[in-house]
What does this fold into?
Amino acid sequence: MKTTIIGVLLFIGLASIGLTGCQKGSLQSNPNVASSSTTVPVSLIFNRVTNEIYNGGGVMDAVSGSVLEGPWSQVHRWNQYYVSLYSYYWGVNNYNWSNTATMYSMLKYIDLMEGQITAQYGSLPNAYAPLAKFFKAYLFVWYSQRVGDIPMTQAGNVNILTPAYDLQHDVYKNSLALLDTANTLMGALITAQGSNTVAGDIYGLTVAQWQKLINTYKLRVLISLSKRAVDNADLNIPTQFANIINNPSQYPIMSGNGDNLEFKYNAVYNKYPIFPNYAQNDVYASLCNTFLNITTATQDPRTFIAATPAPAQITAGKTVSDFTAYVGADINLGQSALLTNATSGMYSYPNFLRYFVDPSGTTEEPAIIVGYPEMCFNIAEAANRGWISGSIAGTWYLNGINASMAMYGLKDGTVLTIGDRGGTTLGTTTVSVSNFLANPAVVYAGNTAAGLTQILTQKYVAFWQNSGWEAFYNWRRTGVPAFGQGGAGIGTPNNMIPIRWQYPNDEAVENTANWQKAITSQYGGTDDITQPMWLIK
Amino acid sequence: MRPKLTHTAAFFMLLLTCLLAGSPIFAQDKAVTGRVISGGIGISGVSVQEKGTQHAVMTNADGVYTIKLSGPGAILVFSSVGYSSQELAADGQSSFNVTLVESDRVLSEVVVTALGIRRESKRIGYAIQEVKGAELVKARDPNVFSQLEGKVAGLDIGTSPELYGRPNIVLRGNKDLLIVVDGVPVSSDTWNVNADDIESVNVLKGPNAAALYGFRGQNGAIIITTKRGSRTAKGWEVDFNSSNMLQKGFTVLPKDQTQFGRGTGYYYAYNNPKGAFLAGETLYDYGQRLAIWGPRMDGQPVVQYNSPYDPATGIWTPTPYLTKGANNLKNFLEAGFLSTNNVSMASSGSNYDIRLSYSHVYQKGQAPNTKINMDNLNLTAGYAISSKLKAEASLNLNVQYTPNIPDADYGPNSYVYMFNVYGPADYDVRDLKNYYKGPQGVPGLNQYNENYGRSNNPYFMAHEWLRGKYKTDIYGYAKLTYNINKDFNLSFRTQITTWDQLLTEKVPAGTILNDYLSWYYPGWYGDYREDHRNLMENNTDLLLSYKKSISDFFITANVGTSERSYKYTSSYETTRDLAVPGVYSFSNSQNPALAYNFGSNMQVYSGYYSLDVSYKNYVNLSTTGRVDNLSTLPAANNTFFYPSVSLSTSIGDYVKLPKAINLLKVRASFADVKGGLTQAQQGSAYYALTGNTLNGGLLGYGQEQFTAYDGPSYKNQSAYNVTTYYNGQPAVSYSTNISDPALKPFDIKSYEAGLDYLMFKGRLGFNFTYYQNLNGPLIYPLPVASSTGFQTHNVNAIVSKKKGEELVFNATPVKSRNFSWDVLINWSTYREYLHSVVGGENSVQLGNHVFKIGDRLDADYSTAFVRDGSGNIVFSGGAPLSPSPNNIGNYKLLGYLDPNYSFGINNRFTYKSFSLSFQFDGRVGGKIYDDVWYHAMNGGTAAESDQGALGIARNAEWETTGQGSVAAVPKYVGQGVTIASGTPSYSGGVITNTKQIQFTPNTQAVTVQSYLSSGLGSNFDEFYTISRTFAKLREVRLTYNLSQKALGKKPIFRTASVALIGRNLLYFAQRKDFDIDQYTSGFDIQTQSQTGTSSDVTLSSSTSRWFGFNLNLGF
It folds into this structure.
């Protein structure tokens, strides 16, 4: 009897100990993060969006096929500014392209942003709403120019897992319209509230500068449509371009390098991308001759910004001021041959003292995403093509060159220290911008084909290590400057540079019907990287 | 007062003695003698006991015994291992001679099944295999689970080559098994179970056996039964077991070339002025980060780290360049040592049992200044309060602590990296012992090293860069059992499993990290990091059991309910560059310290039943069912039921079989288990929050440390994570996965059938099992079109089908009085195929390949050489050509990752008191990527980079450099062809139009360095993918058991044995530069991961042999 009572008491005791483990409430959701229904300050989402355009599509989520767009990235080898001599440290030079990444994750963030704007601002004017439109246009154009037709109207919707494709023509048309609306909303906002910086913006631009950027970017998009300027009247490409130039109060554009959309480095969080590891492997990268051939032939002082003199040339007795001492490598050669040649001192290396010694971006220039010099050349090109009236092409051409020079602090009499590959000082040189400007190859040849080539060539030089893919896209559209191709280093079956990327593999596998339709209507049924898209046909 | 006190004390003493003795000591004594024989010979060590009392003795060497009995009605029980027990009534007689019959040992085997229920193995309808604890206490591995390798068919243990490395435990190709100790699930890091406390290990091989554990038993379970206080003649026993082993001599060690030193392009100079990026710095070598592509060590003058240096001018004087460190790794490593000591005390009486066991494990690693310590205290007790009520409790306290364990992977934190990948022979490691030696060394600030761009002084790492681990792990239960009547009993049990773990890392000032760490810069002041994790889980069950024989039917039934309550918390903090070197504190950080924390809760309510019905011995039918309510799943789908049923019949019990056949049992079973949104392991709080490893997202180096978790995965939620991208500004990231609020639990349907066969009194037997599992539809983040803005969406997406076979064969070919030979062979195989895809699709992309229905899921598709029509490798620019486009459409099948089969062969020879046993096991077939080889080739270190055509070219190139003064003339011509004309087109990595293409032999020479680093590089996984086959002579034990005779007439020792032991003595594999053993399986459907491809293998340490001796004493 007694033991039974003890037993019962023990049972009760144990049971009460055991049951205290019971936990109340829903345990399904993750207590460590903010659920999708949480109110999140728009600035925090906007911060992500502004980062994404510096990095390039898919980079922040490490999507396969994504390519960083900052300085010294793979993109700038494809832009033929420099070559890698050693794939283990600096990657490959070849153009063996396959599936691209996309920028749709940015669309996801913009959609989240727009949801939060509605919830937090209602109909109150704010900078985020027009900026959302700008970034949308940016991401659709970014992706479309890589592949052709893309989903736009049905994209970014979790309820449509197989979005239909829009024609590239429509993507551009709608993107231009988005940019126009963004500009109008920005104008109204400035009228109502004046111009402040936007919380969350990593670039620190004011609302007025963002408005300038939107229109400047629109000029880039319009000029990229030069091949479609005539046969697609509904796009009104020349008219839209002229409209911006002729109505500066309605469509303000950048007025100098101070308006550049540029990523600035800092020592702790966002180091200059090739510090310090690449400095220790600097022996494995050389300048590319596509770039150096242009700058040395025109005695361009930006040669000294980019490169060190080739060691063999210095050994042979040339001075650091001698442009012929600066020699680029031919990207057509295989990496092994390039390394052998570089080891024997044939090629110029990246300017060590500028690009390898500092993590915080004090010796290096910031990474321009959309810049004033490019805008000048875009306007010059439009003028050359007769899209806008007046003999202004030469002026804008010079504006572009001068802005680029100013960015590097280059003017007549500037003394530059020239170091060797390892950063040891070899000597100094005194810059002459006027010599360069007086070079017959640089003096503007007028609104002719030769003049256009000059504009495009100088634009290419101004794109050195910046503006992502623009150098490549300009070459693809115009053939200027002539990129090296035909050799084993290009790495494609015919050793020619491809002109587009393949669609992402997930589109082929998970959105098969729409993808099939798109490649059939555009490329005869194969996702062929050698066939031109509507934009550049 | 005083006398009274004494009296009271005496009374209590007496009472205590009564209680402990648990028997009526006042009873009248009567002595009985006799002899126990078998086959005409007296048998020693037979236990003779009076039933229901403490009266017990052992027979002597001649089988003679004398025992005192309590009365004329006493019943004597004679028992001994290997013989059937006998009971005899004393009937007032004074002498008994007894003949014992050898038992059919295997026939009457009892095994432990789910919930700790003991059942006769011949009545079980599913695969289960037992390993006795005694098998695990002699030839010790630091980790008890590693010792199970080769001992159970279908169970593969991937022993880690790292000190304190957790073994991979894989059962039927599935990872993350449920570990159960004494009937209750335990959160186990595999270190918290002490081999000396194990009575037996029963492996429940599939969901069929483990269905009663619910979703946690989906992959099967390892059921550990601990020892309890046992009844002996003395009423108590003390056991002492000690193993001491030395780790020496390598079975796995990469072979390195020793001719060429550090450098690039056959050029090297310490602090090459053309590589300095700290202005004016001449003392340190910060500016160059070199592999082993330097000059040949011909004695030519070269500036080296220990060449004379003039601090005034900053000028170094060159010294002869010679091979000085051909054995650097061997010289650096020390002999490892493992000492395992256990003492246990046990006692029992008619109404109690108690066992107390304490163990200490000490292991000294091979790397200097590394060790682990483990204390384990285990206490188990049971007390019968009355004939109806029994209370039991058990507590296991395990403490693990180490001030420093090494890390092994790709990075400057790892000895493999610094010796085998980037380790030249141009310095003698012993010269670096004084790691703060000048001129480079500054105590507390800068190390003395042979380079400052690539790696660290290994002694500096060993003594200053410290990774500590401190863990306290407790599990235990309290249980009450009440016998309602002879048919029913009720038990209530509450259990707790909890642990607390702290990992620390002290990074000293001056550590070389390059940009592995984003805030690193040369000469920095170091860092401090802490990773703290805590898990607590309570399982409480109430179980009603019923046992009844009704005519020819025997029925066992259990009905139970349980509640599982789970809580986990973790935090991770790191400084960012210490302000004061050497002070490892979070407030001592130049930039704000980073901190992350993560917590999770889970609750599971369950109800279950099991019903076993036997008809005579003919048929046994078992069914189980369980309902789980799981808090991790969407409310509409979070309660689910899983059934299991098994059937077995022993044919010999009703069909007349030839006399030699003792058992012929056939069995079949089916089980269905569900679950979802939990994960077996968890990393740091940073990993838990962001999904990125510390290596991948924050530090850039180091192995993520995973611990047992078995909690919510939170993988079906769309949510914002707070993060920072730019200059410390706050920002958010959002899920890349689309969640599905209608997600259903996954489902595993398992079918199993088997045959158990025994003949010649169990001297020959085998059991065979065939199983087939349908896994799915699994909750799977299926890729989604990127135009949705997302990467994946959660779906109950795919079903895989796994088929496998297991064979256990045992034999005793020889058995005589003095000599016997026992053999146990385990063999198993499995294959997993894609069975179906959601929405009736016929293919799905998983990783690197689009799999079609029916494809093996362990297929490894990756980069491969392009070949001409005759199989020659195609070159371009002197390097192998990649197909175009170089994407998954052109990846080739490199092989299958899963082994074809695993095997383990155990042999035991017994001669008189000696026994020799050894185990040979391995896995055959399959492919794996050799990451050590790849990195060593890329680094110019691998022996093959200086052998054959590569070696000839490398030496010839060196001859063209004028001792490193001019660029080398390329000499290596890859064997193959180049395209002379025509444009190839590709499909599946193959040129489809070879007829239109003209191939000519490749003649373009490239340098060996460029060929291996840029040309071959990591671009062709085909090259570095090797056979996964390996075999090991796992353990050898030569034991001498002191006979009863040797122990004497009045022995001090109950038992005594000494053994010479060895582990990992031989290793066989295609390449012996990394231990394949650790990569247990190729494909795991539950984590959707492939193991063994180029993307998931990393560097690992070499493995060594263990030698030692074991001493076992029983008092």
Q: What stands out?
A: The mean pLDDT of chain A is 93. Chain A touches chain B through 115 residues (CB under 8 Å). The beta strands of chain A are 34-35, 82-84, 261-263, 285-287, 367-370, 415-419, 425-430.
